[in-house]
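Is this the right way to post structure tokens for a design question? Let me know if I should format differently. Anyway, here goes:
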């Protein structure tokens, strides 16, 4: 669907600009007016991003033909407005002043082409028979699995539920809403191969966290994309990303993420990114250091031991935000209560130990900038789960500790989606980290970094 939208927008761009430049199409326009072309390419991205915001890339969005008209109109209108604004403030205002016809052509041709394409695409998707449908295996033949079958059969005809697998061997051979239980989890690789399965759905609700993690690990043996329909992972869908299958929400877990990015390109990006940030912010970092030194007694940097990848400890750095020589027992007791009782992750209110400059630094997460040193040393990444203190790590359950499978980061899903939020429990914060561990990719890191900017700029969740 995304590729089709980009094709339609490209046609709209070529159509409108070719008429504006020469009233006839020729290849030289791409070389003569390259700056204008780049502007339109940017606005094509705006259209796609806006349509994504309105869920037009989810099945509940692109299958409902009538509900797409207004979002398409808004997306193309926003892009057209941006073309005018960028053109006006750029060195090429002739785009607007000499002719408005290309904007009109882009606006109407964009709406027309996108609408026509999506109309026929939705018609095609709805009319696909079983030959073209995705073959799905569901894990969990309980009440949640029964509801899953009913909803899918009622809502769509291009998801073919081939069968169930369940840990309860007594259910093998029985049928749930007409769908047979084919085996148990230990048979998943054989069943996926024999029945030519395309995707796996985990449809289990009433199960402890640790047991669910074991199910996910066994499901990964299928080598297929996993769609997790569990309330335990609801925080991911609620706060960051989920996929909607009409009336059912699912969180995707990828099983074929390439390790090349995680073990090579991610490190290159960390080195280049941290060096650039330190270089650009060096005057600001020096100023903060002077203010801290002059405003209170003690060192500029706070150094403490934390747990990193594979449970190895290292020293991480922060700007000191507390009065020198404070007792941290109150902080340890709070964390112990949060972890043991699965409370919301909140900080101490009106903490008298924090200095005046420290409050400002914490609010905008500026106290964490020295962690760029840890990034350069390879102990941390720009994006990843937040490192924890050794005593925190000891209090955690085994399934919590799975987060240490990757290098910890300066920013992560917890920081942008759950930091100091009253609706995010400790287990929820760990689920965010574990979902990241299973889905780490360049695109995911890029999205997290983008979402980090407003958190820092507007001081959301800081204290």
């Amino acid at each position: 669907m995304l590729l089709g939208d980009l094709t339609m927008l490209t046609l709209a761009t070529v159509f409108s600009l070719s008429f504006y430049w020469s009233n006839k199409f020729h290849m030289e326009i791409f070389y003569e007016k390259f700056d204008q072309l780049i502007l339109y390419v940017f606005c094509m991205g705006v259209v796609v991003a806006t349509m994504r915001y309105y869920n037009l890339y989810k099945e509940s969005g692109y299958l409902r033909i009538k509900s797409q008209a207004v979002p398409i109109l808004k997306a193309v209108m926003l892009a057209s407005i941006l073309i005018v604004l960028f053109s006006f403030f750029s060195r090429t205002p002739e785009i607007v002043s000499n002719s408005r016809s290309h904007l009109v052509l882009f606006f109407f041709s964009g709406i027309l082409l996108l609408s026509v394409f999506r109309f026929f695409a939705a018609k095609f998707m709805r009319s696909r028979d079983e030959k073209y449908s995705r073959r799905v295996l569901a894990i969990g033949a309980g009440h949640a699995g029964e509801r899953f079958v009913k909803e899918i059969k009622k809502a769509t005809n291009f998801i073919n539920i081939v069968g169930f697998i369940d840990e309860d061997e007594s259910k093998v051979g029985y049928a749930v809403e007409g769908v047979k239980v084919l085996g148990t989890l230990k048979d998943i690789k054989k069943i996926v191969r024999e029945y030519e399965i395309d995707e796996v759905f985990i449809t289990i609700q009433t199960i402890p966290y640790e047991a669910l993690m074991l199910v996910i690990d066994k499901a990964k043996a299928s080598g297929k994309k996993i769609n997790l329909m569990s309330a335990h992972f609801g925080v991911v869908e609620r706060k960051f990303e989920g996929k909607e299958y009409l009336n059912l929400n699912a969180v995707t877990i990828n099983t074929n993420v390439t390790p090349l990015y995680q073990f090579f390109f991610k490190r290159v990006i960390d080195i280049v990114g941290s060096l650039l940030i330190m270089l650009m912010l060096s005057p600001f970092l020096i100023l903060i250091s002077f203010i801290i030194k002059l405003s209170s007694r003690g060192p500029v940097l706070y150094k403490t031991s934390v747990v990193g990848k594979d449970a190895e400890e290292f020293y991480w750095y922060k700007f000191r935000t507390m009065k020198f020589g404070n007792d941290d027992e109150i902080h340890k007791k709070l964390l112990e209560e949060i972890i043991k009782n699965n409370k919301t992750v909140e900080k101490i209110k009106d903490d008298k130990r924090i200095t005046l400059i420290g409050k400002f630094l914490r609010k905008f997460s500026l106290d964490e900038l020295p962690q760029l040193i840890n990034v350069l040393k390879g102990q941390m990444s720009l994006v990843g789960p937040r490192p924890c203190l050794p005593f925190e790590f000891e209090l955690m359950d085994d399934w919590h500790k799975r987060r240490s499978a990757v290098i910890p980061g300066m920013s992560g899903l917890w920081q942008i989606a759950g930091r100091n939020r009253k609706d995010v429990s400790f287990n929820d914060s760990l689920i965010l980290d574990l979902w990241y561990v299973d889905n780490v990719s360049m695109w995911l890191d890029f999205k997290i970094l983008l979402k980090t900017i407003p958190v820092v700029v507007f001081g959301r969740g800081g204290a």
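Format looks fine. Someone answered above. Worth noting: Residues 146 and 290 are 64 Å apart (CA to CA). The mean pLDDT is 82.
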